[in-house]
């Protein structure tokens, strides 16, 4: 072990810093990257008022036009400035404004038009999914249950336990008892394509 301390591993050469603005914060929040109408899960690593650093499998090429959204970032249009390995840097078209202190930001929702099944009070019910996020999903029908009812959402091979949190106008919201991990959400979206 002491040999490692005497001879630290060499680090790859990093490009020179080119930012004119200081990063506001390091986030590590789940984000939604939309390119040509296709939504993908990404991790927002850092954020400044002018740009966003993201991580995802196969980032878009430099010059690509994208839309980025995260818990700490309202949907914003951007241009990919650089990409390398699993990382990319985006320049925002319009500077980011911090959300109002009284507004509770939520994780981005991903379009998920797919049929699923629900187990509610020992009944098996078919339900069209409309969108999904880390913490829950919206289905396109009302359920024979009250708010707070425990249920199981079956999507392909995945079973997600949750509670009915709202119903309105032919739709219902489910809050998962255990939020999805970013990788689970990405795999679920990829399987639906």
TrEMBL record:
Region (Disordered): 1-20
Protein origin, superkingdom: Bacteria
Pfam families hit by this protein: PilZ
InterPro entries linked: PilZ_domain
Domain PilZ, residue spans: 17-92, 103-188
SUPFAM superfamilies: PilZ domain-like
Record's protein name: PilZ domain-containing protein
């Amino acid at each position: 072990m002491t040999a490692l301390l005497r001879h630290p591993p060499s680090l790859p050469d990093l490009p020179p810093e080119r930012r004119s603005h200081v990063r506001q914060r390091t986030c590590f929040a789940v984000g939604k990257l939309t390119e040509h109408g296709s939504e993908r899960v990404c991790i927002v690593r850092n954020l400044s008022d002018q740009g966003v650093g993201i991580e995802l499998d196969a980032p878009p090429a430099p010059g690509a036009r994208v839309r980025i959204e995260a818990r700490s970032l309202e949907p914003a249009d951007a241009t990919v400035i650089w990409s390398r390995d699993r990382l990319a840097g985006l320049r925002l078209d319009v500077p980011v404004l911090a959300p109002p202190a009284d507004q509770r930001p939520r994780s981005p929702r991903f379009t998920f038009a797919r049929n699923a099944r629900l187990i509610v009070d020992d009944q098996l019910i078919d339900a069209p999914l409309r969108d999904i996020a880390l913490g829950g999903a919206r289905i396109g029908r009302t359920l024979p249950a009250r708010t707070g009812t425990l249920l199981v959402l079956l999507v392909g091979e995945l079973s997600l336990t949750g509670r009915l949190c709202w119903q309105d106008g032919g739709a219902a919201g489910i809050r998962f008892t255990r939020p999805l991990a970013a990788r689970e959400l990405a795999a679920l979206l990829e399987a639906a394509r």
